[in-house]
Amino acid sequence: MRFRGLLILMLAWVAALGWTQQSPSLGMYEVLRRSDVYVHPEMRGKVDPQKLEDAANSARYDTKFLILPELPEGWTRNGSEARGPFARHVLKDRLSLQDGVVVVMTNKGITGYSDKLTTEGLRTLNNQSLGYTTATDKTPGLIWLGQSINSQMHAAAGRSTMLTFGFVGAAVLLLLVVSFGVMIARARERGAILQRINHLRPKALDAMTYLDGYMELLQTPTNREGLHESRDRAFNLYEAGLAKMKDLSRLAEAEEFFQASIDEAKRGRQFIQAELGEGPVALTTTPADYQPGKGFPGAPLFEPVPEACFFCSKPDSTAPIVIDWEGQRRTVWACEEDQRVVQSGQSPMMRGRQQPNGQFTPWYSQPNYDPRRDYYGGGYIWDVMAMSMFLNVMNPFGWMMTPMWMGGMNYGAGSSGSEGSSNSDYATGENFGGDFGESGGFDGGGFDGGGDFGGGGDFGGGGDFGGGFD
User: Fold this and answer.
1) Does residue 319 sit within a domain?
2) pTM, whole model, 2 decimals?
3) Which has the minimum average pLDDT: 1-15, 293-307, 373-387, 456-470?
4) Are residues 8 and 140 in the same domain?
5) 3-state secondary structure (DSSP) of residue 405
6) pLDDT tens digit string along 261-276?
7) How far apart are CA 207 and CA 262, in angstroms?
8) Spatial distance between the Cα atoms of 151 and 244, rounded to a whole number of angstroms
9) Mean pLDDT in residue range 69-95
């Protein structure tokens, strides 16, 4: 009786296995959840399901064989198959295997996948598997590929265990050296980008400051509206760049936004030129008509300390210049060096101190500081900031502040009140997306004698290739 019962159970198991391999009503993913092999009816003559089942049962890790005439819809393009991404999809998304192997075969080739092996390692094994297949029987190649991936996964796990327990050797040293080299390269790259950004940000602020100097001077509605719109767009792009800088991996995007802000501000100058011609720059020297103790006509004298350079505090400065923002002009003193900076079209550096709350206060707001006594003495440690940047710290974007010497100045989101939202025209581009865009370029074993991906293309960095039988 016991023998008869065992015989009945064995026959039932064999019947169930055959049914799962042949039943069209049971999905292939469900079959793979119940067993280790799925063979499409059209492919029965090309593989031996029982040998594949035996190989999967003897494997160290969960190993699944999926035999199809072609990949499902959505995994081919222009005749090219993404077997590697498809195998990854089956392993991770359909079967949710943590330590597993999926081997996919179609009429075009064989590809195995495990997330424990490198892209190069998988590519090599996929191509080598072709040497174990014949025109009429692909089973040996499939079994060899599954066993080889299992072996390399086990070897990789052994190396990982050795590192975990602290067996430091040449491999670990090499890994550290390579990692350190990569870190240095990335740090240098980011440093170079940051250096360029630090050059672009003041330029962007200068460019917006230039536009602000003419906001209230243009009388033609078309020119005034066009200038406001350009100013708003430049500001939004600048704000988007600041947001990107919060993520070090997106510094390159931040650089693009700052450059775009500069370009947009430059486009706004056309409205100024259309009405006023070239006109004076926002920071300008005036050659004549200075009235001692009063300043230039229309530009009252602002003198925190008599004859001290407004920018660096150097005493006995003898060059009066006009500062022009949003139509509000002031006469200030400048030393010869800062006068040359202004004449060159650049923004002078403002001397002051950065407060713990991030606000920059100018030198003339420091208690007990006397330029005539302290300028050359070295008793003060100063921060410096570009004049255009200084204005923004005193009057940050998006709110209004009234400095004692300027009157109302809204250096914010532009006169039209636009908030600092990102301009979609400069948003980051999207990759091809999906599993095609994430393929690691490890597909191999093409039966058609060439690369189904053609060495790259839309499937992301290389694809099916290798020797073939045709």
Assistant:
1) yes
2) 0.37
3) 456-470
4) yes
5) coil
6) 999 988 888 887 787 6
7) 6
8) 44
9) 91
DSSP strand pairing (349-354 vs 80-81): unpaired
Encode pLDDT of 104-114 as tens digits: 999 999 999 99
Are 319 and 377 a contacting pair, CB within 8 Å?
Answer: no
How would DSSP label each residue in 455-467? TSGGGSS--S-S-
Closest C-alpha among 326, 344, 190 to residue 253: 190
Largest CA distance in the chain: 124
Query: How many Å apart are CA 241 and CA 205, to the nearest integer?
Result: 12
- Same domain as 150, residue 41: yes
pLDDT digits (tens, 9 = 90+) for 285-294: 444 667 777 7
Distances (CA, A) of 208 to 63, 132, 325, 458: 62, 68, 11, 41
Asked if residue 335 lies in contact with residue 314, where contact means CB atoms within 8 angstroms, the answer is yes
- Asked if 149 and 117 touch (Cβ cutoff 8 Å), the reply is yes
Instruction: Give mean pLDDT, residues 77-95.
Output: 91
Count of structural domains within the chain: 3
**Structural domain contains residue 432:** no
* Per-residue confidence (pLDDT) for residue 11, from 0 to 100: 53
Q: List residues bridging with 349 in a β-sheet.
A: 386
- Domain identity same for 205 and 156: no
Q: Are residues 245 and 305 in the same domain?
A: no
**DSSP 3-state of 268:** helix
Let me know whether 251 and 296 are in one domain. Answer: no
Q: Are strands 76-77 and 80-81 parallel, antiparallel or unpaired?
A: antiparallel
Cβ atoms of 65 and 37 closer than 8 Å? yes
User: What pLDDT band is residue 411 in, cutting at 50, 70 and 90?
Assistant: very low
